[in-house]
Amino acid sequence: MNEGILNGLKNRVLQELARIVPGARSLRVMLHRWRGVKIGRNAWIGYDCVLETSRPDLIVLHEDVVISVRVILVAHFRGSTGITIEQEAFLGPGVIILPGVTIGRGAVVTAGSVVSSSVPPHTVVQGNPARAIATCGVSLASDEPLEKFLRSLRPIKRATHSKRPS
Description:
This protein has 3 helices and 15 strands. The chain has a 7-stranded mixed sheet with strand order 2-5-8-11-13-14-15, with no helix packed on it. A 4-stranded parallel sheet has the order 1-4-7-10, covered by helices on one side. Strands 3-6-9-12 form a 4-stranded parallel sheet. Helix 1 packs antiparallel against helix 2. It is globular and about 60 Å long. The termini are far apart.
């Protein structure tokens, strides 16, 4: 889909403004809404985030989402796919989310992770590519104390592959 020169210029100007202006819960959110990103109540968007340059309409951020600094959301690649970040999800600093991904309710994506497949609700993922490392009973994006979140973590056991003697 061709975005057109004027619409493309508007998206990029608003995107650049949103990267640097203050107002993680107010001005940045408003600028991304003007671009076409669907954003629920009480979202928090950190500095220097790139939320899909040419197709912001493919991004849905539900209520109480936290997007930390320098997060990149790439919602399409040669076609319309989109990204959905569900309620109370937390994206750590430097996270990259690729097209077609849904981040489940209350899920946590740790700093620097690259997410190429959807994340189930209340799951902590880490790495490149991001893999599930724990489940969490309390959302990191909620108003609950950090200690309560940390106590709710349950590591995910991985199958180990033992080497057979030769």
